[in-house]
Specification:
The chain is α+β, with helices and mostly antiparallel strands and 432 residues long. The protein has four domains: 90 residues, 3-Layer(aba) Sandwich (Rossmann fold), CATH 3.40.50.20; 56 residues, 2-Layer Sandwich (Dna Ligase, domain 1); 132 residues, 2-Layer Sandwich (D-amino Acid Aminotransferase, Chain A, domain 1); 101 residues, Alpha-Beta Complex (Glycinamide Ribonucleotide Synthetase, Chain A, domain 4), CATH 3.90.600. Strands 13, 16, 19, 20, 23 and 24 form a six-stranded antiparallel sheet that branches. Strand 21 and strand 22 form a beta hairpin.
Amino acid sequence: MKILIVGSGGREHALAWKLKQSPRGPRIFCAPGNAGTAEVGENIAIATSDFGALVRFAKQNRVDLTVVGPDDPLAAGVVDLFTTEGLRIFGPTKVAAQLESSKIFAKELMREQGIPTAHAGTFERSDDALRFCERTRFPIVIKADGLALGKGVIIAGDLAAARSIIDQMMNQDRFGEAGRRVLIEEFLRGTECSLHALVDGANYRLLQTARDHKRALDGDAGSNTGGMGAFSPANNWSAALEDQFHEKIMRPLLRGLQEKKITFRGLLYPGLMICADGARVLEFNCRFGDPETQAILPRMKSDLLPLLEATIDGKINSPEAKLIEWDQRPAVAVVLASGGYPGKYEMGKLISGLDEAAKLGGVHIFHAGTKRANGEILTAGGRVLAVTALGSTIETARARAYEAISRIHFEDCHYRRDIALSAIAANIGNSL
């Protein structure tokens, strides 16, 4: 069997690594891939935006399944094109991917179905947005409507900050077309939780929970990023919250999509805020999370391949897909980034110590912004690596991840030192 994975990040390396383990022995291609995906498959020099070249490659090489990692190709309709060409592909169509590509579309759907979320206003003119801010309570959250590489969500603490953010988004094109329309939301207080669900159009199957760390610096300070680390399972999830999630979020969401004649097939990942009154939806993502995937997949003992196929075929409730076996050990994934990320950063830095780090038991190193040149591995992006470790406890997993990181070196390496620390603090508090 031949599988093509579209993308070049840590999520795609984790998907390639996991799918390679299938008993069916698939041959893995990654377009364009990175230095890590080259170790489990074959990198193909095709950009994620070059749909024509991707289709030609899939046809010429008789690819059996294509798996799309990033959000941009989904929002641009890569699944629609592959399907039209008679090619099998995992991911939602362009219209279904609006759940992620348009925060306003998602917010309106949630309002229609009574799905718990933050109160918000939507705006196409900056002066209207400013007038709204003048009569609201701070802090507020300002979101670019479209995709902005995980950086289009900004918290404004006061009116001056709100004016600046709105001006940058709507008048100065900070996020291009993505920021022409904005959503201004109430600031929700609580703790975040990420859920991944394989959705086959009518039914879904939950994967394990995770918690992401979005801010660049320790203590949740600094700018928003694509994610600086994650741990699984989430320590703020419960059976009662899961019941609420089914009844108040997922079932109404699928009902709302069906009423709009939209069939969602793929991975749906709602980002949740766990508040005093229960779970509320922050956003919907229509692909595997990054870096959550790097924390979740090492815990999956089942074969991922038949789960993806069952999702495509509308059979996620079939007996072979119903039971997903998990490693009960927790996992901690820490992202190593280039200095300056998510702002400007330099690339081409030599990475050393990867082999030494990988010798530690229970450690997996997933590449993101890396490339191989002249037999050496160099940095090639903002988020460079995700170091994942499993352990008998969250404390053990965390210690093992940071021990592995201590063996890895590249100039201006930056990472948070408090990933999963809140879970350990909560454990200590609960034991007192």
